[in-house]
Amino acid sequence: MPYSRLLFIYSPLCNIRKQDKLRLLTLIFISIILTSCNGQVSTVKDTTVDLSQGKLTYSVSGEGTNSSWELEILFNKNNAIIKEEYARGAGRKYVYDKKSNEILGLISDAAWIGIEKDKYFIYYTPKELIQDALSSNYGDTIMNKTQEFKDILGYKCQKSIIKHGNQVTVEVWTTDKIKPGIIYPWTPLVYENIALEYEIKILGKTDRKYVIQTISDDKIDDKYFEHNIPDEYYLIVPASIFSIDSMWTKDYEENNFNSFTYPYYNDGRQSTIRLLQTGLNKIVQTNSNEKISINFFVNKDGTVSDIEVSINYKESDERIEKIKSFVKSLNEWTPAKVKGKPVKSKVTIFG
After folding, report:
1. 64 and 208 share one domain
2. Sequence-ordered alpha helix ranges (H) in the chain
3. pLDDT tens figures, 62-80
């Protein structure tokens, strides 16, 4: 800071007590420092050394966001967590076990007035998570590095421009010295070189902008990376698991995750499907043109609850109560489990 500016600040303080003067000067200097770097803080002393564990937080702004939005990343050599917080209590948390290559996704949908928000979880591989996030395709992706550089919290960052077709342009400032070891599209974690600033523009308008706020190199306790499921979250069971409609069963894939198992009745998936088909055929001919949709929860103790049924997309059919009674009678399920512990799950059946 120029000496003249210091004198300008100091001169009105001459008649203030020494103790109060020091306190006021301290507050002024802190204010100047925070203002000069927009509140950005880093505890990393040597930014020339690769950072393989720590914590990053980003502010998020843009179309439809507000000041409460934030992205947080915790990481070490074996694990990582991506946590996004949105408005009205909505958010997503991804817990990534790098050794098993399994990602636990805890999803919390937004709560509207008078409506309780939904909380559920899904397991992904990194490939599945990327495909899910990029399910809206804007066209071919082209990335060009520029020769522009700037310092962000001590890290030398290079500017790149990414184009997704003719609609989406992304401007990123990346460093190769921070190694979270994860990829998550539409955030600063898209590429191997993490971005400390990341701005997405759709048709020229800023849809989302991430700006790094804190970088910490503190050691992260392994307990933060455990795959614990809060009681209010339930597992989504894909419709292909127990549906008796061949259109859905053709998409069935064997569960190859080590971290969790789906619920089942009797001896497993096939016996569950046979039981459902036999029971439902006594009420509705499932091989006819009539369409059945059933949703229900399998609780931790194996009981079922919150049964919803429609026939031919209607909820007024007199056979619906019979189907509900049949499903309710199946109260001896083996519940879904995560790391060997029972969890609540939501089953969807199409017939």
Report:
1. yes
2. 3-10, 18-36, 126-133, 239-242, 246-249, 269-281, 320-328
3. 887 777 789 999 999 999 9
